[in-house]
Request: fold
Amino acid sequence: MAKKVLIDTDIGTDADDAIALSLAMASPELEIVGVIVTGKQARYRSQLAKKLLVLGGFSHVPVFVGADSPVGDGELYWFGHEGQGVIDDDETQELDNRSGIEAYRDLAHKHDDLEVIAIGSMSTLARAIDAYPGVAEKFVKVTIMGGHVRTAIYADTTIGPGIDYNLCIDPIASTTVLESDANITLIPCDVTLQTWLTTTDVDLLAGAGPLGQALATSVQAWAPIQRAIFTGVGVGENYDPTNADFLHDPLTVATTFTDVCGYEEIWIEPTMVDGIFRTMERPSETPGSTPVRCAITVNAADFHGMLMERLLAFANENTPI
Reply:
């Protein structure tokens, strides 16, 4: 029987959210019961998510507009390329009338076997936890893409913890979620930085019908931004020119139905260090820390092969005749 999943995403900036949603659609192990969209201009992002669901033949899946601002100070990111080549500015997709916060409450009560896949900031989920005490423990599992638990390395370069957007962008919300009674599995950037989509993969997707074209266009818009970010944090000329998009969120989706990662129970303390939110590893039972199931290894080759096989087959199957 397929697992019922609720996906909370900030789809639209980094293209990996769109790839993750497509992987979920392409995976018979999962039944998507709803998509919550969190992030700046959340309503527009929600339109984008619904468009991808329609392209994949999943127009029946409800999309809920989540939080468009952090719980704490600051603001969520918006680059301006979001939706480019996928959805027109005047295009309207049907969204659910309930908010993302209400969706957490309603779907938690409707399904007693629901899992959450959180691949954006924790801004909506934290608000739901605050608004509806006990809601977090109703979920069978909450799988989160985020955190920087151990050393993150890419291209022989140690990457600093600030690269973790999902948890760092809203520290108050992230702390609320990590300190809740949710059964959390963390897929940190230490692991997700080990796998990425290549330029060859993007070319293959571009030839795989409307959904594949939408994914390819999204990646092509994001790729130069990603390269600038990583060359700016010390990677420099070591950046792989064939790296089109890190697969943070698709890997997180895959962990809910495959054994591509290895795990440890790690005691995590959510805290601020030098102005950056951290998920610090602590000795067992350290006050202020919580035991969390964390991914620590990934079979990147197996994951990448499975991902591309499923995406191409699914996109081609959903190509109009």
User: Anything to note?
Assistant: The mean pLDDT is 96. The first strand starts at residue 3 and ends at 9. The two ends are 31 Å apart (CA to CA).
